[in-house]
Design goal:
Layout lengths: L9 E5 L3 E8 L4 E7 L3 E2 L3 E3 L3 E8 L2 E5 L2 E5 L4 E4 L5 E5 L5 E8 L6 E3 L12
Antiparallel strand pairs: 1-2, 2-3, 3-11, 4-10, 5-12, 6-9, 6-11, 7-8, 7-10
């Protein structure tokens, strides 16, 4: 049995200055550890198939889920069903670290969306 940590897991960069580590990378399940620096955000998006669960280890995150914002603190989490637009932001002055569990894995299953207040703001 081998231990997995951010010291030996597959590392990747995302966004402008965020880090991620694949703690578990299987065909039907993904668990990643991510770190967001202060004043950073991911792009608003949804997943067609993947259901996700975000669990905060340290710091503070604002998670916008289908237009509703929730602030989570260490040892709190939030589920995001497939098809629901969401965005994770670190609006604090400290780094935030969290786990993201995705079933099935979210890689390649991301659709970027823009937040609009009403259909009248959409142009074709």
């Amino acid at each position: 049995m081998s231990k997995i940590s951010t010291l030996n897991a597959e590392h990747y960069h995302w966004g402008d200055a965020c880090d991620g580590w694949h703690l578990l990378k299987q065909d039907n399940l993904s668990i990643i550890h991510e770190k967001m620096p202060p004043q950073s955000a991911e792009v608003r998006h949804y997943h067609v198939f993947s259901h996700q669960f975000f669990f905060l280890l340290n710091g503070e995150l604002v998670i916008e889920k289908d237009g509703e914002e929730t602030t989570i603190h260490p040892h709190q989490g939030i589920a995001i069903p497939a098809g629901i637009p969401h965005q994770v932001r670190n609006e604090s002055q400290m780094p935030a670290e969290f786990l993201v569990t995705s079933q099935p894995p979210a890689h390649g299953d991301r659709v970027v969306v823009k937040k609009v207040k009403s259909i009248s703001h959409v142009t074709l």
